[in-house]
Amino acid sequence: MDIQRVQIQNQDAAFEYADPMASLELLDIHAHAQMKRELFSAASQGAEGELRITLPDSVRPEPLASGVPASEGGATEEEFAMITIRIDYVLEDAHEAVQVVRPSADAPYRVPHMYTRPLGMNSSRCWVPCIDSLWDRCTWELEFVVPRRLSVDAGDLDDDAPEVFVVSSGELTEHAVHPHDPDKSVFYYTQQVATSVQHVAFCAGPFVLARLSPAGSGTCEALAFCLPEHEHELRSTTQFAWQAIEYISSVYGSYPFGSFKLVFVDGALVDCHTASTLAVCSSDLLHPPSVIDQAFENRHILSHAVAFQWVGINIVQKTWADTWLIHGLSQYLASMFLRWLLGNNEYRFRMKKDCDRLCLWDIGMPPLYQVGREEPLDPQLLPFVNLKAPLVLYLLDRRLCKMGASLGLGRVIPKLFLQAITGEMTQNALRHSQLFAHVQEGQWGRSPALCRSMDQREWLPALLVPRDL
């Protein structure tokens, strides 16, 4: 990243940019230990920030007249006026965060397009200067300028050439021709719900649109996009996504955003990457209506992308140790929808297969909950967490129903979603103790046996299973 200019309140500001990874040299396998130490040291140095900006002498934080209440005792926190920072930068090598697909000698018919593909939790800084943290949220106004049509030769825009679209996190507020260059289009997106930069993504290319939600729907707008050669497979692959949104909204809580988009691209490293209001999926998931086996797998992958909007985007983990709970709840919601969609027999069969896989896999594996964890979960462990965490919640749900709480987690999860919408949940961050607190409330008929069963002391924190199993 080449930062060229920084302005504060329309005034040029001095800045220092230091990339701790730039000085590292890739060594061979024999120097692995040394390389590991250098990477750890560089990451520790970059944790405090890589861009330092000096405020101009004429710019100082100005307190506002009214403060924000900090406690019930009447104390207030001092609130300051907003300071606008403008950073002009150029991406020289964005392969760690942005994938650009072009025709090549091996694939000459590949359609040009691009999309964000973060390789880790802290890779957003690779394409935008930001506070790259899951818990630092803000609203977003995104503006994209792209060629109006896809053309081989610059300046030779054929009316028959496909039009270039930008699909981004947030809601599309305006799509217009560039005021100074008629060969370009401008897309304006607005994200009104505070979202971490790690959950902001975009795609650009000659996509074909399919509307999944019915006209006049009051829940949200659901859209699907794919490249031109796959449009005949798009609707058969994604039509059920609207049913997933409707089911979770009606059973557990309203959808937290205004839209949901599915975009299918080529060359994706994972089957599906979920961001705010957007899921970037691999084109390999697309299939015609005649294919049956792939349809079952796709419904599980894409329904989890829908459920992740509630738990994973709108609600995040309080600490890295609570990552299992976020992924477990989203997988649990997806499994409940698939149970409603495909039937109870398929649900029980899938549960049996998951239990068998877990028995073979969970040998020498780390626990789901690790006290004091201060770093993100290893991506290689995420499939294991996605397998085990919903099974743990299934045990909890069965225990609740066994002890007299007929609705099980079906009464706890809506309360969590309601707290996130009303602002009662601090920063929309959830920890496992909050889940147990809702379970222990008097809404379960004040059964002493149930309260004892759901006491956190009766569950092993490391293994996340009941003591008497």
From TrEMBL:
Its main location: nucleus. InterPro entries: Aminopeptidase_N-like_N_sf, Peptidase_M4/M1_CTD_sf, TAF2. Belongs to the TAF2 family. The keyword Transcription regulation applies. GO terms for molecular function: chromatin binding; RNA polymerase II general transcription initiation factor activity; transcription cis-regulatory region binding. The keyword Transcription regulation applies. Keywords: Nucleus, Transcription, Transcription regulation. GO terms for biological process: transcription initiation at RNA polymerase II promoter. GO terms for cellular component: transcription factor TFIID complex. It comes from Malassezia globosa (strain ATCC MYA-4612 / CBS 7966) (Dandruff-associated fungus). This is Transcription initiation factor TFIID subunit 2. It is found in: Nucleus.
